[in-house]
Amino acid sequence: MKKTLLLILLCLSMALLLWSNDKPKLSTISGNIALSTKGSVLMLNVADATPSAYKLVLLSQEALDSLKIEKQALLGSAEVKGMVSGTSLIVHEIGKGDKKFVLRDENSHPLAVGKSQISISASKCISCRLCVSKCPVGAISMQKGKAVIDSDKCVECGICIEGIDKFRGCPVGAIAPQK
């Protein structure tokens, strides 16, 4: 009995240690920021790296406006600090020459919030949950069997609409910018 309890405690301690070391860490990546061909999504292209391109997860347009940051000002050679999530980079700050654009604090909380302009049509949603698992900021959840967006958390990265990696976005077009 004592050996079993000791073994369980040892296993739990090891699991906790592994889990605590597996938390995402801030990374700094240098490269060229460009607008993607799929609208106003910013991509960071990195030479001689895998992956060679990251989709930049910024803030909602309203939040960027409140911080007085224009996407055009971010284009070109830059150093980006953020959390890597697959081929997305949740941006904390962007350094361009002597300028520094700060979007999130050290705990990944946005310095400005704004209501997202992306919505989900409940009548079109087929409850596949693909958008829930791909949202890098946890803004999409399921309620009453349908996907819903928390417009305060959404950063309008477009992953749920356009996709990323092998995910091609909402398979039925239930997610779109509000008109």
Model description:
- This protein is an alpha+beta fold and 179 residues long.
- The protein has two domains: 26-102, OB fold (Dihydrolipoamide Acetyltransferase, E2P); 118-177, Alpha-Beta Plaits, CATH 3.30.70.20.
- It has five helices and ten strands, in the order αβββααββββαββαβ.
- It has helices spanning 2-21, 61-66, 71-74, 130-134, 159-162; strands at 26-35, 42-45, 53-57, 76-85, 88-96, 99-102, 118-120, 140-143, 146-149, 175-177.
- The strands form three sheets. The chain has a five-stranded mixed β-barrel. A two-stranded antiparallel sheet has the order 7-10. It has a two-stranded antiparallel ribbon with strand order 8-9.
- β8 (140-143) and β9 form a beta hairpin.
- It is globular and about 60 Å long.
- The chain starts with a helix and ends with a strand.
- 26% of the residues are buried.
Number of helices: 5
Number of domains: 2
Computed structural class: alpha+beta
Given the C-alpha coordinates, what overall shape results? Answer: globular
What is the average per-residue confidence, as pLDDT, rounded to a whole number?
A: 82
**Rg, Cα atoms, Å:** 19 Å
Low-confidence region ranges: 18-22
Sheet of most strands: 5 strands, mixed, barrel
Distance between the termini: 65 Å
Instruction: State the order of secondary-structure elements, H for helix, E for strand.
Output: HEEEHHEEEEHEEHE
Helix content: 10-25%
Strand arrangement in the largest pleated sheet:
1-2-3-5-4
Percent of sequence in beta strands: 25-35%
CATH class of the largest domain: Mainly Beta
CATH topology of the largest domain: OB fold (Dihydrolipoamide Acetyltransferase, E2P)
Number of strands: 10
Please give the CATH architecture of the largest domain.
Beta Barrel
